[in-house]
Amino acid sequence: MIHVENMSKEFISPKKYPGFKGAIKGLFSNEKVRKLAVDRISFDIDKGEMVGYIGSNGAGKSTSIKMMTGILTPTDGFCTVNGIVPYEHRQENAANIGVVFGQRTQLWWDLPLSETFSILKEVYNVSDVDYKERMDFLQEVLGFDSFIHSTVRTLSLGQRMRADLAAALLHNPKVLYLDEPTIGLDLVVKDRIRQAIKEINAQYETTVILTTHDLSDIEELCEKIMIIDEGKIIYNGTIAQIKDLYGKRRMLTLDVKEIQTLSDLNFHNIFQLGEDKLQVKKEQSSITFNFDKDSLNISHIISKVMEKTAVRDIKMQDTQITEIVKEIYKHGI
Length: 333
Fold this sequence. Notes:
This protein is α/β, with parallel strands linked by helices. 36% of the residues lie in helices and 28% in strands. The chain has helices at residues 19-28, 61-68, 90-94, 113-123, 128-142, 157-169, 187-204, 215-221, 239-246, 267-271, 298-306, 321-331, and strands spanning 2-14, 32-45, 50-54, 76-81, 97-101, 175-179, 207-211, 224-229, 232-238, 249-256, 278-282, 286-292, 311-318. Strands 5-6-7-3-8-9 form a 6-stranded mixed sheet. Strand 6, helix 7 and strand 7 (207-211) form a beta-alpha-beta unit. Helix 5 (128-142) packs antiparallel against helix 6 (157-169).
């Protein structure tokens, strides 16, 4: 569905100098500043895939998305979306994609939501039969029937996001770009939008590219993840793979009957591990071990604790994708 090959984008701007004298100098200077925002990235996304596309601010994420949507033209390389070069055939490409920006809206502010949908129906030449079918489906999964006759300006943030998602899907796009679709939403609305995206993907095999800083969205919706940093793709694979490769930490919490019986135990000496491989935190009635899974076995921890006191409950947690990505941002792959 999406093919990107050696795509780069360079921005050239006049060099700026500080102060009033610098401003005068800038008027007569021909010096330019070159910024390579995207550096020869290549990847493929298949039909029906939901892919998390993430990166820190300034990593090149938005620039590469703008080239895939046809807003920008690459300096080098190329991309195709559903067989179309998006920046060469913008109108044809626009008919095949849907875009939702969490901090912007494509809805008409002073019109009732129903009128907005009617306008978009005509813009995208959606037939009456298709319009009815999609509206019935979208109302069912997004639940906007209670406010469809309200003006957009009166909608809450959660209602507007559901309406924006419906507007982006009204023409049944092949590819859906989601930029922070759950930003600022409460947990109930956030869960509803996530579920709606899953149902839309299952029903129409819509390819979804999700860019967000809320990595819980990525874990909930996507199997595949791409990480961009300094204009380069530094990881392209499944979430399961990145957890296997970089999620070496585990957290084990044991709820124990008598915590005081563990007070004299030095677990670093017992397991012969330093602070980098094992951290231990004792609380009122529980003890938590944060450890390297390649250096220590869960059964060894539990058996050692049970020598001293009864264990009433066990809670095990693998490394969260949030922590892995945070470390990748800090130290790279």
